[in-house]
Amino acid sequence: MSKIAFIGGGNMSSCIFDGIKRAHKDADDIYVSGPHLEKLAKFADKKAKITTSNVEAAKESDIIFLGVKPQMLTSVLQELKDNGIDFSAKILVSMAAGFKIASIRRLTAAPYIVRIMPSTPAKIGLGITGIYFENGIDDKNKKLISSLLEPLGMLCRLNSEEGINAIGALAGSAPAFLYRFFEAVEHECIRYGFSQSDARKIVEQLGLGTSSMVIHNHETPISALREAVTSKGGTTYEGLQQMTAFKFEEMIEEVFKACMKKTHLFEEMF
Ligand SMILES: NC(=O)C1=CN([C@@H]2O[C@H](COP(=O)(O)OP(=O)(O)OC[C@H]3O[C@@H](n4cnc5c(N)ncnc54)[C@H](OP(=O)(O)O)[C@@H]3O)[C@@H](O)[C@H]2O)C=CC1
Ligand SMILES: O=C(O)[C@@H]1CCC=N1
User: Fold this and answer.
1) 148 CA distance to ligand 1 centroid (A)?
2) For the chain, which residues make up each domain, given as ranges?
3) What single string gives the DSSP state of each residue in 214-237?
4) In the chain, fewer beta carbons within 10 Å around the N or the C end?
5) Which residues form the Pyrroline-5-carboxylate reductase catalytic N-terminal domain (predicted)?
6) Per-residue pLDDT reduced to its tens digit, 235-248
7) CB atoms closer than 10 angstroms to residue 161
8) Is 36 helix (H, G, I), strand (E, B) or coil?
9) Which CATH superfamily is domain 168-268 in?
10) How far does the centroid of ligand 2 lie from the alpha carbon of residue 151, in Å?
11) Per CATH, the architecture of 4-159 is what?
12) Cβ-contact 156, 130 below 8 angstroms
């Protein structure tokens, strides 16, 4: 097994780390680095080597997952470069939104860089992870990196970094938008007299049942599933009319446009 490091042990690194541990029982000496050792204890409990030194973690590893926020990545890469890390035989796997391969290369001169765009449902093996390989990565390494990410759920191979940007919005950010919808429904349940605990259960079953209907009726357009709920002259129709009045589709378009705009702004900044 190649030696693996995570620079930054936050939410996303933790999802990927857990996936690797689930699928690769022999992955024992994974390094995780971050500024606060106490926050890395959860990794140590799962046999990772934890350290406050990004340099130590990078030096010891063949595959380095970059798990810090885009705003931190420049200084982290600069630190590794300034401390003599030789990237020539290492693979850098960056999950940072809006941070291009060209920018990582400018800072590190690393020949092998992979962009990935995971999502938090990866925590339970149900995420969507975008992946973009440059031409320089050979098939053996493509297979290796893919095998580390497959336990996270669906792996979506993309042909460009703009594809990574798009999947970042459509699959990386989108869980937050769906959670916002669930939060709003939970709030309405409470407004109509349900207890907090019942409201939560209703939202859980609503999400599970509706997603399962989409999955179990794979050949059926989603619009047809919606129409099956919408009795002629009935109550659902009135609710949908409100969604139309409030320009629901236009709002969703603007939501994704805003994500992309910020991603492109990041690309200019870094
Ligand atoms: N969350 C998501 O759904 C997604 C996130 N991403 C990308 O993943 C990356 C990480 O995001 P996320 O996990 O959510 O963020 P988190 O804030 O959870 O994690 C960032 C981690 O970086 C650590 N850190 C901060 N400074 C340094 C440093 N100098 N050296 C090493 N580690 C450092 C932080 O440690 P400490 O807390 O101790 O300061 C923290 O553990 C981002 O680039 C983001 O764009 C991509 C797709 C989806
Ligand atoms: O909010 C963010 O910047 C990251 C990228 C996609 C999801 N979360």
Assistant:
1) 19
2) 4-159, 168-268
3) HHHTTTS-HHHHHHHH--TTSHHH
4) N
5) 3-98
6) 999 999 999 999 99
7) 20
8) coil
9) ProC C-terminal domain-like (1.10.3730.10)
10) 20
11) 3-Layer(aba) Sandwich (3.40)
12) yes
